[in-house]
Amino acid sequence: MAMAKPKAAASVALAMVLGLAMVSLVAGTSGFATFYTPSYLPSACYGFQDQGTMIAAASDVFWNGGGACGDTYTVTCTGATNEGVPHPCTGRSVTIKIVDYCPAGCRGTIDLSQEAFAIIANPDAGKVQIEYRRYVRLTF
After folding, report:
1. What is the pLDDT of residue 82?
2. Alpha-carbon distance 70 to 73, whole Å?
3. Considering its fold, how many domains does the chain have in total?
4. CA distances (Å), origin 64, targets 79, 89, 102, 106, 110
5. For residue 93, what is the domain's CATH number?
6. What sign for the dihedral angle of Cα 38, 41, 44, 46?
7. Are the beta carbons of 88 and 128 closer than 8 angstroms?
């Protein structure tokens, strides 16, 4: 019976390590979010394939020549950028998929769909300070 406990503990530890190795969360980065409105098609990454509404366009900050296509980010509003809406943040985060490119002159680091922006902030703000985190899927 004494042998079962170390094996069980080792199995639990191994399962935790494997689970963490499959999806890794990279440290958050500060930036700005804006939003764009429908229609979301075509997109630079998926053409006319509908990817839903929890989507975003990447700016040159992390577009990487299209390398950002399909990447998943969690975005959280951290503060206002203007005086019109002094407290725009909802306190919620949203997970989005990069499906498009926000070309040079883009006002934000990430251009969220209108629906995704509304989850994290009051759309009347138009632009908010954010923290974003990219999920990196590791393969073996």
Report:
1. 80
2. 10
3. 1
4. 27, 29, 12, 15, 13
5. 2.40.40.10
6. positive
7. yes
